[in-house]
């Protein structure tokens, strides 16, 4: 090219959750059946959408207005409904003007980070959800800034690490939190959330909280939402219907802006996000239109209670299967639908393997494993031998070796097989 047309941060755009699928597709061509435990799509894993939800969507689809543009921020009636829901919690009080719709949380993430001043950084958790960490790093043209979450302490943030990194890095302008957490499945208690808000207040930062899994919680744990503790700190909550209805293909999410009027600089930043959305005209109309009717339906509460009971059952079974396995650290998931397994220091040496009968698979795995992180090598061998596709933990901007696996398999026998097979594979791999 006449000029270098690649943006400085383009190399930071990584998504291991999808990238490992390319390895799985190659293995499928060699005859290996793949069990996709890499991506959080409940529908793909067999979850059935209730007929009453489908009926509401069908009715909306018969209305001509759902085929038209919505206002830039989203449908007024839906934004009013969302504001009322937030206000009913008794914490922060907002209006419909504080709610902005996007084509999924991924769209919101891209704009929230992309419209920051290049020199302004947002520090997020490690392990990190790739869309957040990659988008923030790409906007800055630099490696992601992260604070450590501790697998020996339920994956809670290391508050001292967070405070020190904020204190000694004046470019940090915001703190990002994912609660309930992806990829770890943890839910942060009130003192953690209040501690994060305290640091933000002390250093005059804003807070982003990804709450897409807010209503997917179990084992007696419920998340303390950002709006419950934000006080007068500026913040953005990210929510949506992808995981909750679940309707990931709708690409429908929103942000709730807190305390915009408290800071003129934050107010100008939020205005730039809305103006950028205006250039797209609006987000998809049909999914927005059904949110109030579905969420206020008398059947919705019991539907979600049953979903959460099922995730609790799966999380308990997965944890009980893996917890006594030598060489790993594992915590029982409390929210979202993921579990993260960590290999203890020194357990992986980058040369271990699983016995493979197929010489073509063996040759392929050795070739693609050349020079990769030890946990990625494990994931490749696990997939080649068993077909189980997990995501290496180092793909989540994490210095620890491990992997993320979903709790989404709806076939109970297969779910048990997946975790029993993972346990046996870990034992064989470590011993090799």
Walk me through what this model shows.
- The protein is globular.
- The strands form 3 sheets. An 8-stranded mixed β-sheet has the order 2-9-8-7-6-3-4-5, with helices on both faces.
- The protein has 2 domains: 10-47 and 301-431, Aspartate Aminotransferase, domain 1 (Alpha-Beta Complex); 66-296, Type I PLP-dependent aspartate aminotransferase-like (Major domain) (Aspartate Aminotransferase, domain 2), CATH 3.40.640.10.
- By secondary structure, it is an alpha/beta fold.
- The protein has helices at 16-29, 51-61, 76-87, 105-114, 130-140, 159-167, 190-202, 226-229, 264-279, 285-296, 300-322, 359-368, 374-386, 412-431; strands at 35-36, 99-102, 121-126, 146-150, 156-157, 172-178, 206-210, 235-240, 253-258, 328-330, 338-343, 388-389, 391-392, 402-406.
- The longest helix has 23 residues, at 300-322.
The share of residues in helices is 40-55%
Determine the N-to-C terminus distance.
49 Å
Query: What class do helices, strands and sheet pairing give?
Result: alpha/beta
Task: Describe the main β-sheet briefly.
Answer: 8 strands, mixed
* CATH topology group of the largest domain: Aspartate Aminotransferase, domain 2
Strand order of the largest sheet: 2-9-8-7-6-3-4-5
Fraction in beta strands: 5-15%
User: At CATH's second level, what is the architecture of the largest domain?
Assistant: 3-Layer(aba) Sandwich
Report mean pLDDT, rounded to a whole number.
Answer: 93
- The shape is globular
CATH class of the largest domain: Alpha Beta
CATH superfamily of the largest domain: Type I PLP-dependent aspartate aminotransferase-like (Major domain)
Radius of gyration from the alpha-carbon trace, in angstroms: 22 Å
**Total discrete domains:** 2
Determine the number of helices (DSSP H or I, runs of at least 4 residues): 14
Low-confidence runs of at least 5 consecutive residues: none
| SSE run | HEHHEHEHEEHEHEHEEHHHEEHHEEEH
Number of strands: 14
